[in-house]
Amino acid sequence: MQITLIAIGKTDRSELEQLIALYEKRLKHYIKFEFVVLPDIKNSKNLSEAQQKEKEGELILAQLQPTDTLILLDENGKQYSSVDFAQFLQKKMNSGLKNLVLAIGGPYGFSDAVYAKGNGKISLSKMTFSHQMVRLFLVEQLYRGFTILRNEPYHHQ
Length: 157
Fold this sequence. Notes:
Layout: E1 2-8, H1 14-27, E2 32-38, H2 49-62, E3 69-79, H3 82-94, E4 99-104, H4 112-117, E5 120-123, H5 131-149
Parallel strand pairs: 1-2, 1-4, 3-4, 3-5
Helix pairs in contact: 1-5, 3-5
């Protein structure tokens, strides 16, 4: 299985980029991982919230292959403990899934078309985080999940 993380807009903090790169490198010891950063929408100030979500949605959907499973990072999604998230990943691998795509939307969330294509939603917390922080938290949780599955000492119960 491959995991693809899709996010809108580049990270503007070098500290976050360094931490994301650290966990991305660690994660690649366990699974094929790709981080796709889609460009910010140009002239977004001239667009309504709905128009911006629509344009971002088109960019996200253009990245998908017909066999991909799309999971959206959404505040109304299912919340997992780290151990439960590891089990979620194991089930996806056991199912013979080719590519698990995790998508982080733009500042206003996802378009209706992306929600319609999604195969599920995950929430990292009931708290609101910046889209840039979510990238770091998600990549770290993916890494943590694989260390749990391998019974490695990174995660403590």
